[in-house]
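User: I'm writing a tutorial on reading structure tokens. Could you give me a worked example: one chain, its sequence, then its tokens, then a sentence or two explaining what the tokens reveal?
Assistant: Sure. Here is the example chain.
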Amino acid sequence: MQTVQQFTSLSHLSCSQCGQFYSAFEMQTYAPCCNQPLVAVYELPDDFSKASLRGRVTSMWRYREVLPVFEPDNIVSLGEGMTPILTPKHLRAQYELPNLFIKDESGNPTGSFKARGLSMAVSKAKEAGAHTCIVPTAGNAGGAMAAYCAAAGIKAIVVMPSHTPQVFKDECLLYGAELVLVDGLISDCAKKVAQIKQSIECFDISTLKEPWRLEGKKTMGYEIAEQFDWALPDVILYPTGGGTGLIGMWKAFNEMEEMGWIDTRRPRMIAVQAATCQPIVHTWNGVQPNAKNYIGRPSIANGLAVPNPFAENMILRVLRESGGRPIAVQDVDMITAVKEIAKAEGLIIAPEGAALWKALLELLDQQVIQRDEKILMLNTGSGYKYLQNIM
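And here are its predicted structure tokens:
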């Protein structure tokens, strides 16, 4: 027990809707009380300070006190996190954006920010003694889970849309995962996962249907604060499919404020979606009461093709609390943005990240964002995996 207390301050899990307590020491999925995601709650230690980070490992595990793994031996890490914040000097000059920054997640293992959440979820699966993990994925999450399961010695089952670019399928197979292809979107893959689980005992790592991927993704928030010397940006643009990173960063900001690491000021959070699959935009604009029956179409930005996000309520809450909003971008504009950023800055970013550039330009024209504000875009992955669809 002493090791547990030294390594993590995890206290319990709570329902994201009503706050009901659930044990953090048992295998949990989501909160049955409200059919909503569970979130990890910590008894934040007094001796965990900004100064204590000096000299620590340069990965997301530097924030171990506010991460949920009890025993260090259960950590499955490939070096994820502590990705750079870049200064795009040519875009800054051309568009008169003196305080524009890009946090580039493409250097994570398997080439995307999904490494953060899957490192955490697979670590917790190992800690729970799971022998098989399963995930429905639009692409990057499947590759990440396959990689971390390989590192952990756990069987991986990846359920992926059949139209996903071949490189995403190949990497899962190279890591030794069982790959199941489904005609449809990630929502159809989720239905297939439910069928498979009826006959095979699996640790289901579906987005926010377990509480641990969120804890990995929230480390982006801790890093952003640390990298900006504890002064958060005015605006953060984030590509939003399932919304784990958006929710995770907001959770991190709240935890840091509670510890006295940052003040009460918060960025306006902008959730960027694909025009072909924009359930959050439609709910926000009153087109529908919620996204449960929303029907989306595929996008070149695979990660944005999430028609029925399980954490919709949490996403909308972050947007409201931050004074932000959602916005949708056409696929053709994502491709144009990928090419513009590559030529201007030498970065081949994912279409999901490129969508943010088009969204930013629109919001500048609408004067929702001001040119002199401190603006951060999150590029969630490498564009190399998408080249067959972009060129």
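What the tokens reveal: The chain is about 35% helix and 15% strand. Residues 1-5 have pLDDT under 50 and may be disordered.
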